[in-house]
Amino acid sequence: MCYYVDAKLSRKEIREVFNVETEFTEFKSEKMLSGFRAKGTVEKPLPIIIDENPDTAVIGDWGLLPFFSKDRTFQSKTLNAVIEELELKNSYKNSINKRCLVLVNGFYEWRSLDKFGNPDPEGKVKQLHRIHLDNGDKPFALAGIYNIWNDIITFSICTTKANTLMADVHNSKKRMPVVLNENDHLKWLNIPDYLDFAHPKYDVKLILENLEPEKTPNTLF
């Protein structure tokens, strides 16, 4: 899944990398932003680009709120949207053709290990990794869907079956966010068949950074 992202990016980077204007003056960028809300926290802002205005980045609130939401507590349930099931979920089916790009500088996932440091889907030890698109360490986009609720742009990050690299990292659930190559941004925003972006039909080259190598045993080979 995708509940933690690297949101350390500036307005200048957004303008240069995505060739857009920025419709916000302030954005608190965070190296590790969690979609989960601590007590007393209301907003989880991230820069996004929506299909209706692809030339401008705006601030969206992580956790899609469908039209029937009575309040914002529902957002904890909609941080991710399973791309293979969008039409089946009441929360998402009205947003299938409301597409957005979620702008990040990476995302995080944990590999499950046994007590000896060996990969084990049932393991209790968790080893943190940062994942990035192989694009020269520039900001990149995740595929998202959105809905405007009470004048607030709310969004979910779409997830798909993990590719080979991510299945090794996210070895308990074997899911990953839909990461977009730069030349596919407009395709995601405009092409009706969203399943064109589900793995294995769609794949990208990712780079993996192990942030806790001390949890893996040293070997001679």
TrEMBL record:
Q: A single GO BP annotation from the record?
A: proteolysis
Q: Does the keyword Hydrolase apply?
A: yes
List the keywords (alphabetical). Covalent protein-DNA linkage, DNA damage, DNA-binding, Hydrolase, Lyase, Protease
- What EC number(s) does the entry state? 3.4.-.-
Q: Which GO terms describe its molecular function?
A: lyase activity; peptidase activity; single-stranded DNA binding
Q: Which EC class heads this enzyme's classification?
A: hydrolase
- Similarity section: Belongs to the SOS response-associated peptidase family.
Protein known as: Abasic site processing protein
Which lineage?
Answer: Bacteria, Pseudomonadati, Bacteroidota, Flavobacteriia, Flavobacteriales
